[in-house]
Specification:
Layout: E1 5-8, H1 14-26, E2 31-32, H2 34-37, H3 44-54, E3 57-62, H4 64-67, H5 70-81, E4 85-90, H6 98-104, E5 110-111, H7 116-132, H8 161-183
């Protein structure tokens, strides 16, 4: 079940986390807890990753136990990777270890050691304002295009049946004209011979013979 609030806590702090979850859900918020919302047989780690990615806020129950919990440190690191808002709740007077000091440097605590009711009211206001605020825009990604990458094939143009028919008629007409010139007999016209004119008749040759 997806919920807007992911409650991160150490296993030994189950009672404090359960009390907090009940108080928030009574106020109208939807919460997710690993001990309650992971059904039997489901992969524990996969369920936690999906719940963190689906949530909008992580509420961290910070105590001496969570300060030394590797699982809580992993959940906090995943929240940082997914840019999930984290609200730390100081349930005990414990100083953050090196694993948590960097994450908590820019986050404002809600101190439950001073009084449960006042801190819970402050937490409700913080959650209502956080859930109403727009989610941070994702960082722009740089797309690298390789010059050696094969180009996608061009989409083939669809030709209409009328265009194909016209093209076929033109091709058949061109083939018919070519066949006609190749197969039809052709002879060069013979020029008519003009009749010889009288002026053009040869004169009889003159001779010196004297008749007897």
């Amino acid at each position: 079940m997806a919920a807007s609030i992911f409650i991160s806590y150490a296993g030994r702090d189950l009672k404090a986390a359960t009390d907090l979850c009940e108080a928030l859900e009574t106020a109208g918020f939807t919460c997710w807890m690993a001990s309650r919302d992971i059904p039997p047989g489901e992969n524990f780690q996969i369920a936690i990753v999906r719940a963190i990615r689906a949530a909008q806020v992580m509420v961290l129950v910070f105590t001496h136990n969570s300060n030394h919990s590797e699982e809580v440190a992993k959940e906090l690191a995943l929240a940082s990777q997914t840019r999930l808002r984290v609200v730390p709740l100081r349930m005990e007077d414990a100083s953050p270890s090196e694993a948590f000091a960097y994450e908590f440097a820019t986050r404002q605590w809600i101190d439950f050691t001073a009084g449960w009711d006042a801190a819970l009211a402050q937490l409700r206001q913080r959650l209502a304002a956080t859930l109403a605020a727009p989610e941070p825009a994702p960082e722009p990604t740089l797309t690298v295009v390789s010059l050696d990458a094969p180009r996608p094939p061009r989409a083939k143009r669809k030709r209409s049946p009328l265009g194909l028919l016209v093209a076929l008629i033109l091709i058949l007409g061109a083939l018919g004209v070519g066949a006609y010139y190749l197969l039809a007999p052709h002879s060069k016209p013979v020029a008519p011979v003009a009749a010889p004119s009288a002026a053009a008749k040869p004169k009889p040759a003159e001779t010196n013979d004297v008749p007897f």
